[in-house]
Write a structure and sequence with these properties.
Blueprint (H helix, E strand, L loop, with lengths): L2 H14 L8 E14 L7 H8 L10 E7 L6 H9 L3 H23 L10 E8 L2 E7 L2 H4 L2 E10 L2 H4 L5 E9 L2 E9 L7 H13 L3 E2 L28 E2 L6 E7 L10 H10 L1 H6 L2 H7 L50 E7 L14 E9 L12 E12 L1 H15 L9 H6 L23 E2 L18 E4 L10 E8 L5 E2 L9 E4 L3 E2 L4 E8 L3 H9 L11
Parallel strand pairs: 1-2, 7-10, 14-17
Antiparallel strand pairs: 1-13, 2-4, 3-4, 5-6, 6-7, 8-9, 10-11, 12-13, 15-16, 16-20, 17-19, 18-20
Length: 551
């Protein structure tokens, strides 16, 4: 066969191959300043904090500032018990620290004009628990407008079987563009010999289902919240109740309290601090435990420790407590070995379907990992920060949705159509095969109660006849993986109406009232939760999956 014939065969073969699916995803970099500071019950001034917040960058500020504090209040036994129950002093301390951080950002803007592009950093999330606090600030408008599904959690691991909040973590999670992020501010068990306690605290924090996709929402049903429980949802990672690790990007920071290996004498530790820092780093308990796979064994990373240990300093000085002599010339009686207690770690593990070649997978890189400027010295700890760049997904939902509608129409031999008004109002997200949500009512109904059902036909098939007098607003619920859709059900008839669900697709979770009184309205909440099998089906169908709900 001559060369021209070979080329003709190759051209024919290429023409027989289906075109690659359209790509609606791009990757966007988001810069994150993540700092942790055990303040030892003291209050740092805004001017000193501004030096910390300016570290690691020069001209344009990071898009997000994530700050976690520990020991905002005195952690006496009485305070811990009181604050776990009442949350009075802790709440006030968190508010005061938030105000101080706002003032600090004012100093930052004055020192580096234009770094916030004329905007002011806004506190978009805050959580506190006894002495722990977690703050998330953002200033960039594109970031602020992209934050969705934001919620927070408290995860105590302290005394009384892990019920008290003197130890544990605060967590904040949200969706930024098309990626999910979770930030954790932790304070783990203290003392040099309690490595097992710290490991157990970490396991408790990452093992708890601290978030819920079906948390109560505005709009009660006859005074009762319509909620889903973990048993109603699919298994990890798309269950209705989920935890820290069920996110594309996780940043775990705080006073983790890991010290230098206890086999090393105090005097030798003190010598190595000034004489051989790399040897001391190799004996850091967190590094040892990570290497053995006993802690942070979930893909977490940390930048190298190139700075001096952050604990324990003589308050108000730049000297370790063992270096400070008392008036009689004797060393401080209550001394602690220097250690890297204060740390920032991160992981990027995409939780949803991605192309097999690894494209469009989230990632995190650290450009700076250091301790704070020595101007911050009211505490016996030194603050630490990491400047991270998170590569996140950005999906053109409008283009994707239009392509999904056109593909569905082409599969039926129909001409492409524009979305209907109710589709636009309902927030169209994904679209695929027919999915039934029709449901027979319960076996036993109250006297005089009529039957109705919920159904989801294949789009754009004609909607089934609505039950007389029962309306949905909006009439379609467009389900998006990981995001709730809400509609209002109204019974405009003169009789009670019963509602029930059956034969729902495995990825659909709905919460709705069992019955509606005449003239009553209630909220229907729907969620698309994907297990492993549904993820595979989703990937096979170009990332499109949906159902429409109508009564």
């Amino acid at each position: 066969m001559d060369l021209s014939a070979v080329r003709r065969v190759e051209a024919i073969t290429r023409n027989l191959e289906p075109p690659p699916p359209p790509t609606f995803t791009t990757m966007t970099d988001v810069d994150i300043f993540c700092g942790t500071y055990n303040v030892n019950g003291k209050r740092e001034k805004a001017l000193a904090l501004s030096w910390w917040l300016m570290q690691g960058w020069t001209t344009s500020a990071p898009h997000l500032f994530v700050i976690t504090l520990q020991e905002m209040i005195d952690l006496s036994a009485a305070n811990v018990v009181k604050e776990t129950i009442a949350d009075t002093r802790s709440k006030q301390a968190a508010e005061d620290w938030a105000a101080e951080l706002r003032r600090a950002f004012g100093y930052v803007a004055a020192a580096r004009p234009g770094c916030f592009d004329g905007a002011t950093p806004q506190l978009i999330a805050e959580e506190h628990m006894v002495g722990i606090a977690l703050f998330v600030f953002a200033w960039d408008e594109t970031v602020l407008s992209s934050v969705e599904d934001l919620c927070s959690a408290r995860i105590p691991t302290g005394a009384v079987g892990g019920r008290l909040g003197n130890k544990g973590a605060c967590a904040v999670r949200f969706r930024l563009r098309a990626s999910t992020l979770c930030f954790v501010g932790a304070h783990l068990s203290a003392h040099r010999g309690d490595v097992a306690g710290r490991n157990a605290d970490y396991a408790a924090v990452v093992g708890k289902d601290c978030f819920s996709r079906f948390a109560p929402w505005r709009g009660d049903v006859d005074g009762d919240k319509a909620e889903m429980t973990a048993s109603d949802g699919p298994p990890n990672p798309c269950r209705c109740d989920f935890g820290v690790l069920d996110h594309d990007v996780v940043v775990f920071a705080g006073d983790l309290n890991y010290r230098v290996d206890a086999s090393l004498a105090d005097r030798e530790v003190q010598f190595l601090v000034r004489g051989d820092l790399p040897k001391l780093v190799a004996l850091d308990q967190l590094n040892v435990e990570r290497s053995a796979g006993r802690i942070f064994a979930h893909g977490f990373a940390e930048a190298p420790l190139t700075f001096l240990p952050t604990y324990k300093y003589a308050t108000g000085t730049t000297q370790y407590d063992y270096e400070v002599a008392d008036a009689d010339g004797a060393t401080n009686k209550k001394t602690r070995c220097p250690a890297w207690c204060d740390r920032v770690l991160w992981r990027a593990e995409p939780t949803g379907p991605r192309p097999a070649d690894g494209a469009f997978a989230e990632s995190v890189a650290a450009s700076t990992y250091d301790r704070a400027d020595d101007r911050l010295k009211v505490s016996d700890h030194r603050a630490v920060f990491a400047l991270l760049t998170a590569r996140l997904r950005d999906v053109d939902a409008d283009a994707r949705d239009a392509a999904g509608r056109d593909a569905a129409a082409a599969a039926r031999g129909e001409a492409p159509r524009a979305p209907r008004a109710d589709e636009q109002r309902g927030g169209f997200e994904v679209l695929t095969r027919p999915a039934s949500l029709s449901a027979p009512p319960p076996a036993s109904l109250a006297p005089g109660t009529r039957r109705t059902s919920l159904s989801a036909p294949a789009l754009p098939s004609p909607a089934p006849a609505r039950h007389a007098g029962v309306d949905l607003d909006p009439p379609m619920l467009w389900l998006r993986a990981g995001v709730d859709a809400v509609s209002t059900i109204t019974n405009r008839s003169r009789e009670p109406v019963a509602l029930a669900l059956a034969r729902a697709p495995p990825w659909a979770r709905l919460a709705l009232p069992l019955s509606l009184a005449p003239g009553a309205s209630a909220t229907l909440k729907a969620h698309a939760a994907l297990d492993a099998a549904a993820k595979l089906a989703l990937a096979e169908h170009g990332g499109l999956l949906a159902a429409t709900a109508t009564v």
